[in-house]
Design goal:
Helix 4 packs antiparallel against helix 5. The chain has a two-stranded antiparallel ribbon with strand order 1-2. Helices cover 45% and strands 7% of the residues. By secondary structure, the chain is mainly alpha-helical. It folds into two domains: 155 residues, Hypothetical protein af1432, CATH 1.10.3210.10; 64 residues, no CATH class.
């Protein structure tokens, strides 16, 4: 099912301003998509809208920090692609447009499809060291402890669904140490998390620690442990506040 948005991914990445492997990049889109599909099993949401939202909602970001207008920009980008790159009925496109435009600043919405889209995004806050409170989510299924823990575990470990490589043809790492994003490049024999760059000399260790501090300041989260070893990087963090809007 994620394969259906592969052509859209390629078009989005042609003009994407940030790193594909950043905190708002391809792995985040993929986790939002899977979060949304999981929620849709209960909410009965239109999954085509969920998939398109997952790919488009952050596609017009200009930075990885405060960018409150990226949602409306994504909505207008979706309008430009509608009936060319993807096709929806006028009603369904209206829902997609509203979901993209409002996800940056609105708490909830009466429509269950829009609620599902926003919850799918908010459930991935683990990637920046935060976990949404149930009161900041829309759907009953998203508010369940099991759902929050499942999504948080994936986001906090930088899990990258296999279809990112296999179906989307996107990959997987950022050599810029100032981003220092963990992505799941698994060694299939040892099942260990492998550092994307493979670089672990003393300079890399220092750069990684400095980058971690910068990200912590940028995202109001505190990184409490960082270990760089020859084969892997392990990062643990703790969020200082709940930040439901991504």
């Amino acid at each position: 099912m994620p394969e259906s948005v592969a052509p859209l991914i390629k078009i989005v990445l042609e003009s994407y301003q940030l790193s594909e492997a950043g905190i708002h990049g391809v792995a985040h889109w993929a986790r939002v998509l899977e979060n949304g599909l999981r929620l849709a099993e209960t909410t009965g949401t239109n999954v085509e809208i969920v998939k398109l939202f997952a790919v488009l909602h952050g596609s017009r970001r200009l930075n990885d920090g405060h960018d409150p207008e990226h949602g409306p920009r994504a909505a207008e980008f979706a309008r430009a692609l509608h009936n060319d790159v993807f096709h929806l009925s006028d009603h369904d496109f209206g829902l997609l447009h509203r979901a993209c435009a409002g996800h940056t600043h609105e708490r909830t919405h009466p429509d269950i499809t829009i609620q599902t889209c926003w919850d799918a995004d908010r459930l991935d806050l683990g990637r920046v060291g935060m976990q949404p409170h149930p009161s900041r989510l829309c759907t009953e299924i998203a508010k369940q402890v099991q759902t929050i823990n499942w999504a948080h575990g994936r986001g906090s470990m930088g899990y990258v669904p296999e279809f990112v490589r296999d179906a989307w043809g996107a990959i997987a790492f950022d050599e810029n140490p100032t981003r220092m994003i963990l992505l799941q490049l698994r060694d299939k024999s040892t099942h260990q998390f492998v550092h994307p760059t493979g670089a672990c000399d003393q300079s890399s260790r220092n750069q990684s620690k400095n980058a971690t501090c910068r990200i912590a300041r940028d995202w109001f989260s505190v990184f409490i442990a960082t270990r760089c070893q020859p084969a892997k990087v392990m990062v643990a963090w703790s969020g200082c506040r709940i930040r439901p809007r991504t």
